[in-house]
Amino acid sequence: MKRVFKSSSCNVLIVYEKKYPTAKWDKGINNFKSYSKSNLYNRLKKKIFDEQGGICAYCESKVE
């Protein structure tokens, strides 16, 4: 398993959680899955890819 050193910059998922405290992952009006085409989702994905070097932290295979 790859060790990932997380940055201390603002986590966009925490920002989302504060904006929609009662939202669910895949149900309801403000769910994160439907929100996934947003700039917030893209920023979160880029942050994870950058921190992990484009590989899965568990199996260490390349993530597309």
Structure report:
With 64 residues, the chain is mainly α. It has helices at 12-19, 39-52. The chain is elongated. The relative contact order is 0.21. The mean pLDDT is 76.
Question: Descriptors for this entry?
Answer:
64 residues, mainly alpha, 2 helices
Give a concise summary.
This protein has 64 residues and is mainly α. The chain is built from two helices and no strands.
Task: Indicate the structural class.
Answer: mainly alpha
Helix fraction, binned, reads: 25-40%
Q: What's the overall average pLDDT, rounded?
A: 76
Task: Indicate the overall shape.
Answer: elongated
Number of domains: 1
Question: How are the secondary structure elements laid out?
Answer:
Layout (H helix, E strand, L loop, with lengths): L11 H8 L19 H14 L12
